[in-house]
């Protein structure tokens, strides 16, 4: 289980979540549209969820249906290229 960043982050990227994450598992490059949570490092503390100004962050099982694809997008971001 992990927290997932969904579509509302696209184009916002204010990094409020990064500031509060105790394990620094929220990442993204300057050229990325949004940030992503590394599911292997996230400790499910929930600190990031309330600070997001656009409600982009959900625990995996509560990701709204319309954004389910973001579960895989977050995971895929951290998979090393084959
Ligand atoms: S739930 Fe906690 S550990 Fe996971 S990304 Fe959010 S702040 Fe970081
Ligand atoms: S706080 Fe929300 S909008 Fe800001 S970078 Fe994090 S997920 Fe994106």
Describe the structure.
With 82 residues, the chain is of the alpha+beta class. Helices cover 22% and strands 12% of the residues. The protein has 3 helices and 4 strands, in the order E-H-E-E-H-E-H. It has helices at 16-20, 48-51, 69-77, and strands at 3-5, 26-27, 36-37, 57-59. The longest helix is centred in the C-terminal third of the chain and has 9 residues, at 69-77. It is globular. The structure holds iron/sulfur cluster (SF4) (2 copies). One iron/sulfur cluster (SF4) is lined by residues 5, 9, 12-17, 35, 51-52, 54, 56-57.
Question: Which percent band covers the strand fraction?
Answer: 5-15%
Number of helices: 3
Q: Ligands in the structure?
A: iron/sulfur cluster
Task: Outline the biggest β-sheet.
Answer: 2 strands, antiparallel
- Outline the low-pLDDT stretches: none
N-to-C terminal Cα separation, in Å? 24 Å
Give the % helix: 10-25%
**Spatial order of the strands forming the largest sheet:** 1-4
Tell me the overall shape: globular
What class do helices, strands and sheet pairing give? alpha+beta
Radius of gyration: 11 Å
Number of strand segments: 4
- How much is the average pLDDT? 96
> In sequence order, what are the helices and strands, one letter per element?
EHEEHEH
